[in-house]
Specification:
heterodimer, A: 121 residues, alpha+beta, four-stranded antiparallel beta sheet, three-stranded antiparallel beta sheet, 34% strand, B: 182 residues, mainly alpha, 7 helices, 0% strand, globular
Chain lengths: 121, 182
């Protein structure tokens, strides 16, 4: 590789790491579920089992909180990728339903040594 | 269209069309690879990378239009917001790759670096547009995965383009002005 190849590689990795830090860095606050829709950002404690209704342009996306874990139960989108993404339970993990403009993520929590850096599918 | 203003440019139009067709072929080839629905590998960028070396700016712009519109048709996104994202990403990628190609001597940068720069520009613009306009600020949670996967695919596509440029006898014939399909 030539010098500027390495420069562009370093820039790409820095940009990736920077956004990862901005988005995924845990804080020392309790774990919460954040649901972003076109209308507003909603926040829920993970300790209370409940089903959250998130309204998007296609209809209602149902997000289920159960024993500190979260999964999308139902969504009016066509490909159902958000449902297939399964259950999330750690700070920084997320599920997105792009067609219905619903973004679900877990925020807060303390940084632990044994936590997984990231999960993809 | 400036690309067809002279006899020489007229003679090269089929070559631009051939590279446009190659872009569409690679865009279709992407379906072979399992990726998240919000991420494209960018294989169709490979012909553009190779073409930087011997197409003029008008010819490259024509290839860009063929690539963007063709991809919209192949992917079925021509009349959707996804097309705007894709077009903006492709334009940003082209501008950055072209500027880097013109401003940085070739002994300091290979197609790997140009591919990485283009991939970074495309993905950054798409994330920015997605957050500012289409999906809202919360879509930023996808950014690290989007940019990370983009870096990996940019590296792989750049390596492929560089290898092709070094070893392809077909490409050497094309550069010498012979027929691309002979």
């Amino acid at each position: 590789m030539k010098p500027f190849d390495l420069v562009f590689l370093a820039l790409s990795l820095t940009l990736t790491a920077g956004t990862a830090w901005a988005v995924l860095a845990p804080t020392n606050t309790p774990l919460r579920l954040e649901v972003q829709t076109d209308k507003a950002l909603y926040s829920y404690p993970l300790e209370v089992d409940q089903t959250v209704k998130a309204e998007g342009p296609l209809g209602i996306t149902l997000v289920h909180i159960e024993k500190g874990t979260i999964h999308v139960e139902d969504s009016p989108c066509t490909n159902k990728v958000c449902i297939a993404m399964g259950t999330i339970r750690s700070s920084g993990q997320w599920v997105a339903c792009l067609p219905n403009h619903v973004f679900v993520r877990i925020t807060g929590g303390a940084q632990t040594q044994d936590s997984v850096d990231a999960g993809v599918f | 269209m400036p690309a067809s203003s002279s006899p020489r440019a007229q003679a090269r139009l089929p070559l631009v069309a051939f590279f446009g067709a190659l872009s569409l072929f690679f865009a279709t080839l992407e379906y072979l690879f399992p990726t998240p629905p919000w991420f494209k590998l960018g294989l169709s960028n490979l012909p553009m990378l190779i073409a930087l070396d011997f197409f003029t700016l008008p010819e490259l712009l024509l290839l860009l239009v063929l690539k963007v519109v063709g991809q919209g048709i192949v992917n079925g996104t021509l009349a959707s917001q996804a097309f705007v994202l894709s077009a903006a990403g492709s334009l940003a990628s082209f501008v950055v790759m072209y500027m880097a190609f013109r401003l940085i001597p070739r002994r300091w940068v290979s197609l790997i670096g140009l591919s990485l720069a283009g991939s970074m520009a495309s993905n950054a613009v798409q994330v920015g547009l997605s957050m500012a306009w289409i999906f809202g600020p919360a879509s930023g949670i996808i950014a690290p995965w989007f940019l990370g996967l983009g870096t990996a695919s940019g590296l792989a596509i750049g390596w492929g383009a560089e290898t092709l440029q070094r070893h392809s006898r077909w490409l050497r014939r094309v550069k010498r002005g012979q027929s691309a399909t002979a």
